[in-house]
Each structure stands twice: as C-alpha cells, then as structure tokens.
Write a structure and sequence with these properties.
This protein is α/β, with parallel strands linked by helices. The chain has a domain of about 200 residues: NAD(P)-binding Rossmann-like Domain (Rossmann fold). The chain is about 45% helix and about 15% strand. It is built from 13 helices and 13 strands. It has a seven-stranded parallel sheet with strand order 3-2-1-4-5-6-11, sandwiched between helices. The chain is globular and about 55 Å long.
Length: about 350
C-alpha cells in the first residue's frame, strides 16, 4: 500500500508541479492538494481540496483522508504574491501553526516535510564562507520572509519534540531558479539594466527548479529525519552572472540600496524586499555535505548549470530604450532620496 500525501500550496507553480510529480510515483497511492484557490491547469490524478491552512478545518481534511505524509510548500517568499506583507506573514506563520496543530492530532501521520529556505541564515558582512545546518545567522532577520522562515522553523522543531514518532524533515532550499520559475531573483536578472552595490560582489548559490522538486519527492517517499541545506554545487559571483547574461549594470552606493528596492517594488518590475537587497550585497553560501551523505540526494544541476538554464530561457532579446530609461529614472530617484 502506497503513501497518502497531502501537499499544501498547490495553486503555486512549484506546488502544483510537485503534486503532479508525486502522483506519478509508484510509492504513492494518492495525493491530496490543498490551497485557498483552485490551481490553474490540469492536476491529473491529484485530488484538489479547497481549504485554508489557517483554518482548523485542515485537521478534518488530514483525518478524513487518512494522510500519512504532509508536504508543506505554502511558505510564501514575496508579499506581492500574497496580497501584502501582513497577509504574507499570516499565511506563513499562522498558517504553519494551524497546520502543525492539525498534524499533532493526526494519528495516521508518519512524516512531515517542510520546504524551508537558506534565507534563514540571513546575509551580512560577518557571514562564514559556508553555513552548515548547525550554524545560526550572524545577524538575526528582523523583518520579511527571512524572519517568517525563522519562526516557521521554530514551530516545526517544537512539533518534532511533541511528536517524536513522526519523521520531520526541513529542506532549506537555496534560491530556486530555472526557465519556468518566477521569483525575485529571476525578475532581477530580467531587468534591462541591473543595479548592483558599489564595492560588493555577492556570492550566489542556486538550486534548479527540477532539483527542488526531486529533493522533495525523495524526502516525501523515503527521506530521513533532520534539517538539510539543498543547493547546487559551487558558487557564482554576481559579476560573473551578469557577464554571462551580457547585461549592463549600474553600481550604486550602499545607501541607495533600500530606495532602489522600494522603487523597483512600486514599479512592479520586481518584488524586492530588504533581505533580498542584503543578499545581492553580501550573498550567501551553504554547505551541502549532509544533503549528499545523510539525506542521500544529489542535485543534477550545479549552481552554474542552473544559472545557464535560466540564461537560455531569458535569451538575448532586444533591450527597449524605454525600459532602460525607466530603470535609470528609478536609480536617479533612489540616489536623490538617499542624499535627502
């Protein structure tokens, strides 16, 4: 008899694709996809249940379906997709708390998999070359997605202590990119002129979208208990990435970084948050030894090959003079606001 898996966040592209991938796995009997809105497109053999994980009714769904595995994928990275920062925090933190409360009551549950993020380590000038899973941030996140991830992981660890009979796995995924992923990083690289921080060259580490899905499948069907960094091998410097794209950049003084992020968000060109601007200043590297040796997973793509796949998807494309002018105007306004 195969696993009965509940996947949250299936209206998102990655959540929907993962649910479909899992439903085709011979180790899985059936997949129940949960979200507040129906997913776009055909979900194949996935049974969709319209439910809000912030509502205690999610406990009835888990119990009624005899779910033995829950994969939590609805921790949202950008406020724009959630309808604002307050809604984003409510979905991420309150939603996770309610889901864990439902899991705690479920006698049938054997495994919980949580898609977390390497954003939990933050980005600062004091960071080590590589973060291992046992390391804490050198500067604790004070707002945004990174703070949500820290809180979510704290609640998950508390749940693991209360239900030691359940295998709990957290996958700290690096920035996920690929030809089909829309994320702050892919939006950043789509800009006609790319703003950078003067005097800094961020260390970038990526995870290909296909490797994220395979890591989740591997963990849901036969993974092990624990917390794991999941990323492609190697580091790519921001300057190297921009050279490979062949795009012009505008180095900005650090005081203008937050203003640039605000202007970019307001223009809806990309959904940049303060912690993402910090990442583009300092970058981040994570050690993946435990992923390979303990979790038993090896990504197909390195950081460099994942970025190359994104580069091919972006294509050379003509750069509109109007788009260049719009970015330059944002930069000019940011510089003026920073000096003021």
């Amino acid at each position: 008899m195969g696993r009965i898996v509940l996947v949250t966040g299936v209206s998102g592209d990655l959540g929907g694709r993962f649910a479909r991938l899992l439903s085709a796995d011979p180790a899985v009997e059936r997949v129940i996809g949960v979200d507040v809105v129906p997913p776009r497109g055909d979900m194949g053999d996935v049974r969709f249940v319209r439910a809000d994980i912030r509502n205690p009714v999610i406990a009835k769904v888990i119990a009624g379906e005899d779910v033995d595995t829950v994969v939590h994928m609805s921790v949202i990275a950008t406020p724009g997709t959630a309808g604002g920062r307050s809604t984003m925090k409510e979905l991420n933190v309150i939603g996770t708390m309610q889901l864990l409360a439902a899991c705690q009551k479920a006698s049938s549950l054997k495994r919980l998999v949580v898609r977390s993020s390497t954003a939990v380590y933050g980005s600062s000038s004091r960071d080590p070359a590589m973060f291992t899973e046992d390391m804490a941030p050198k500067r604790m996140p004070r707002s945004g997605f990174a703070k949500d991830v820290v809180e979510v992981e704290g609640y998950v660890r508390g749940f693991a202590r209360r239900r030691p009979d359940i295998e709990v796995t957290m996958l700290r995924a690096a920035n996920t990119i690929g030809p089909r992923v829309s994320s702050p990083m892919s939006q950043y690289f789509r800009l006609p002129v790319v703003p950078t921080i003067l005097g800094f060259d961020a260390r970038l580490q990526f995870l290909h979208e296909d490797d994220l899905l395979q890591a989740l499948r591997h963990t849901a069907t036969g993974g092990v208990h624990g917390t794991f960094n999941v990323a492609g091998e190697g580091i790519l410097m921001l300057s190297q990435a921009l050279r490979r794209l062949g795009k012009p950049s505008i180095p900005l003084p650090s005081f203008a970084a937050s203003q640039v992020g605000s202007f970019v968000r307001q223009s809806r060109v990309a959904d940049f948050s303060p912690e993402q601007m910090a990442y583009l200043t300092y970058g981040r590297g994570v050690d993946t030894t435990r992923m390979r040796e303990v979790l038993g997973f090896e990504p197909e793509h390195t950081t460099a090959s994942a970025f190359e796949d994104l580069r091919r998807a972006l294509g050379p494309g003509p750069i509109s003079a109007d788009r260049v002018a719009a970015v330059e105007d944002m930069v000019t306004q940011a510089l003026g606001a920073g000096r003021g």
